[in-house]
């Protein structure tokens, strides 16, 4: 295939993932996020593999934690994020919270995605 419809990755698809429990908009967002992970050279290879499996239809969202590579990728990633969060100063944490709240407010104003409210500190 050529042009914009060319498949550059095994398992790539030109339509959103269709998880039954998610809305069409959420499925489109999930597909976009998985493509971003798959294509991010800095993402752990295990997480890229999970993204490829999901994009290729070989793994559903509900089964990610049952898949050994999915479990490892997510738990290792969360552990790394936890350590990064713990090593931040309180000021840096507050800056992150403010940025998340700003992005959520922008998305809500645009009518995009589910409303997100971070937990109070």
Describe this structure in words.
This protein is mostly helical and 121 residues long. It folds into 2 domains: 3-87, no CATH class; 88-121. It is 56% helix and 0% strand. It has 4 helices and no strands. It has helices at 24-39, 45-55, 68-87, 90-110. Mean pLDDT is 78; it is low at 1-7.
Number of domains: 2
In terms of DSSP E residues, the strand content is under 5%
Shape: globular
Quantity of strands, as a count: 0
Mean pLDDT: 78
Distance, first to last CA: 51 Å
Q: Write down the secondary-structure element order.
A: HHHH
Rg value:
17 Å
- Fraction of residues in helices? 55-70%
Spans with pLDDT under 50 lasting ≥5 residues?
A: 1-7
Largest sheet entry: none
* Helix count, DSSP H or I runs of 4 or more residues: 4
Helical/strand content category: mainly alpha
Write the layout of secondary structure elements.
Elements: H1 24-39, H2 45-55, H3 68-87, H4 90-110
Helix pairs in contact: 1-2, 2-3
Region (Disordered): 1-24, 101-121
Biased composition (Basic and acidic residues): 10-20
Top keywords for this entry?
121 residues, mainly alpha, 4 helices, globular, disordered N terminus
Question: What's the gist of this structure?
Answer:
With 121 residues, this protein is an all-alpha fold.
């Amino acid at each position: 295939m050529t042009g914009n419809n060319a498949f550059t990755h095994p398992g790539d698809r030109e339509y959103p993932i269709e998880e039954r429990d998610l809305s069409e908009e959420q499925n489109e967002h999930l597909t976009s996020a998985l493509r971003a992970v798959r294509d991010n050279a800095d993402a752990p290879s295990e997480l890229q593999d999970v993204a490829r499996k999901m994009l290729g239809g070989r793994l559903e969202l509900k089964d990610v934690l049952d898949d050994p590579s999915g479990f490892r990728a997510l738990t290792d990633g969360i552990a790394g994020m936890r350590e990064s969060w713990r090593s931040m100063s309180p000021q840096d944490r507050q800056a992150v919270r403010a940025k998340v709240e700003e992005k959520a407010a922008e998305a809500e104003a645009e009518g995009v995605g589910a409303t997100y409210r971070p937990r109070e500190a």
